[in-house]
Amino acid sequence: MEDLFGTNIDLSELTEKAISLVMTYTPKLLLAILTLVVGLWLVNRFVTLLDHRIGKKDPTLNKFLCGLISAVLKVMLLISVASMIGIETTSFIAVVGAAGLAIGLALQGSLANFAGGVLILIFKPFKVGDTIEAEGHLGSVAEIQILYTVINTFDNKRVVIPNGNLSNATLTNVSVYDKRRCDMTFGIGYDDDIDKAKKILQRLFEEDERSLTEPAPRICVAGLGDNSVDLMFRPWVGTDDLWPYYWDMQEKVKKAFDEEGISIPYPQRDVHLYNASND
Asked: What is the mean pLDDT of residues 86-90?
């Protein structure tokens, strides 16, 4: 048989070569596919067990570490499968390295986020479960992943912040310490008794079981405003009690001032009218 160029083609020889190639590479291909399937199952199983194991001891580390280990194991599995098929491992690694370099240059932001995640795990400015304020969001840290940190806000929103931003920007961790100062300011009229108002605040502080005696609370005149004398009230409470304590104290102070005749003045302005003479 001749092809388009007039060259003789031996079909039997081609058939023998095809059969030889099939007989040679089919077992390798089937074995490689089986290895890939079983290997992926084992990797996922191992990562799941590792996630449960580390999650009990360190919830902050498990998501980041498990994601990293999963990626490394899968790359190693692909290299092994490629060598089973007959691809030169050295050449394959070189191709993977070149592709990795190109992808790395294209995804510099992702690499910065990865480095940021490593820094967060090393220096631990916060951990899973902490309440932080960062990038304009206040919420509880739910996960620290390879590239991102997930925060659940108190109004039930899920916020995903890049680790690079968190590692390079200023953030506030409000749950590091077990107690916090609750700052409040109450205005009273200029004609009211300052000492009486202070005693009322002290009594409300002592009556609330959430109040901490150490450090001692601070009650003093913070300033003389345009319409009121501003009293600064700074008690210390447990971190978990801060906002409930603040909201309850606002109501208690208003009711106590009303009962004791202490006024909370409204903003007001005096207007003086003058009659101009005919001249």
From this structure: 66
